[in-house]
Structure prediction request, 649 residues.
Amino acid sequence: MSSKDYILNNIRRNTRQVFDKPQMDLNAIRFDDQLAQFIEISKAVGGDAVVLKEGEDINQVIRSLYPDAKEIASTVEGITLTTLNPDEVNSPKELEAVDLAIIEGSFGVCENGCIWLPQQIKHKALYFVTQYLVIVLDRSKLVNNMHEGYKLISPSEKGFGVYISGPSKTADIEQALVVGAHGPKGLTVILK
Amino acid sequence: MSSTKHAQNADVFQQNKEKATWHDNALWFVREKRDRISKTLPEWEELRALGEKIKLHSVSHLASYLEQFAANAEANGVIVHWAKDAEEHNAIATEILQKHNAKKVVKSKSMLTEECDLNHYLEAKGIEIIESDLGERILQLNGTAPSHIVLPAIHMKREEVGELFSEKLNTEKGNSDPTYLTRAARVSLRNDFLTADAAMTGVNFGIAATGEIVICTNEGNADMGTSLAKLHIASMGLEKLIPDYESLSVLTRLLARSATGQPTTTYTSHFRKPVEGGEFHIILVDNGRSDILSNEEHIKSLNCIRCGACMNTCPVYRRSGGYSYTYFIPGPIGINLGMLKDPVKHSENLSACSLCYSCNNVCPVKIDLADQIYKWRQDLDSLGKANSSKKLISTGMQFLFTHPALFRTSLKFSSLAKYAPRSLTFGLKEWEDGRSLPPFAKESFTEMWKKGKVKKK
Ligand code: SF4
Prediction:
């Protein structure tokens, strides 16, 4: 007997009581001022969120936030700061020297600062190896909670998607919070 | 004086008073963070109730969900393997790695691979394995095991890490600044990520409806590994399976809040297909899980989402440390999982519980941890441990009583626990059976007594 059959048989033989799938009609948290909540929670998770004002140039805003960034990778339309097209490198390892990546998120979650990123670029490594990350997000695309968020997700073609909330972090040494464990040392959400 | 292994080890842990106090406070701080954040959600208790029901449903439909999961994953181009036990899991992983001629593997935190003792197995086959979670990496360099399932190096002080890093990673001697040390590990591990031939991960949730796996980390180490290497092997315990996104939305809301008091982990990553030109393997591991299904008294232990909240809140765990338990998972859930694994070997851990019931009240999927421990104690007779039964239990209480500060806090919990009437009656009954009371903090006891919180049977 294959291990698969052995395991499935054992499960079937051992299953006693059966429980129905619960109704998930939860009255989950909602926010009156979603934009204010999203900005606040983005800061609370160690990142930042800024609203792009009428007439402001997104490139200038990003440049003023990251004046020292040299290698800047992006495929987002309207970004002219780009020094590297991340889709043109062959190996994800070539993205290792990226200082700043600018990407686009599909929606943000107000309860926890998560931004959903279905993989749209060739190498997902860009989201993680970059030293700093900017996520451009349409401010009308905010949901209250994860329940609403998961209703919006459909499988990305590339087979990878990630919720990101704030920069990479750790507290593994004496519970002292350090931002920038392996991934980005800083994250700014630009709400356009 | 009779004593269990846990009690003996706990005494050793308590010898370094300062460090023991720090450990206790640090974990209590995490528990308080969990309390604070849970209170920001009016629906928190409903969410826990849903979490419990989702897991009970999933576990009781495991066979059909597994078939659905495997079929969907295979349709996505994933290679799915089935392992009856730890040995088979390790053999499968090794075979995949050898086929790809992989000499160096980066791994993200996985209690399952710990359970299978994978690292030693691979090392014996000449495959280098690098732990990439910072806490796990510290322990790997130190040659020791995790003492907590979410905060693996919580028992180490920054000075110890500084010393270790100066020896292994050439950091400056005497510098134990956490940011400095984390940066040093970042540089060293980046090099490992870039040079690894394969990435191994655990799994937080498997989604039957989509055939994908979900991994939650703060550091981004699972993502670094899997996006830089072409080969990804994920080890998944059968009980990680849940039906769909709707269920996932409930459990992701519970996990980080319960674990560390954060609103979410930084990364909640969904892996559905291999990377371009790469391979993605999922090893489904039983290793005793399908046997637990028939054990109705303990079946709820399969609900566990490994958040660690029961450890953070446990007055005995906080004051005795993860190494005082004989099973590799410590704390309330570890006591129970150890008993399910090998009751004769791990029965002494049953003493590491004052039945304060605090764990039941924080567990995000409402596992009846303390009730299960109570039942195990009742069952000791049938394990041929009848004679030592009373000894075990009284030494468990004794551990609390001989550490007065510890006892007070445990009372503080149980005083909240109108939920937990059995905790004190149980202990008292033991002493009424003819034992003399060990010395303890009389004031607290009197206070409790006056307030009618101690019930005499
Ligand atoms: S038993 Fe509950 S509280 Fe303990 S680790 Fe598992 S899910 Fe968390």
User: Anything to note?
Assistant: Chain A touches chain B through 75 residues (CB under 8 Å). Helices of chain A lie at 3-14, 34-44, 58-65, 125-129, 146-152. Residues 30-191 of chain A form a domain with the Rossmann fold fold (CATH 3.40.50.10420). Residues B 258, 304-310, 333, 362-365, 367, 369 surround iron/sulfur cluster (CB under 6 Å).
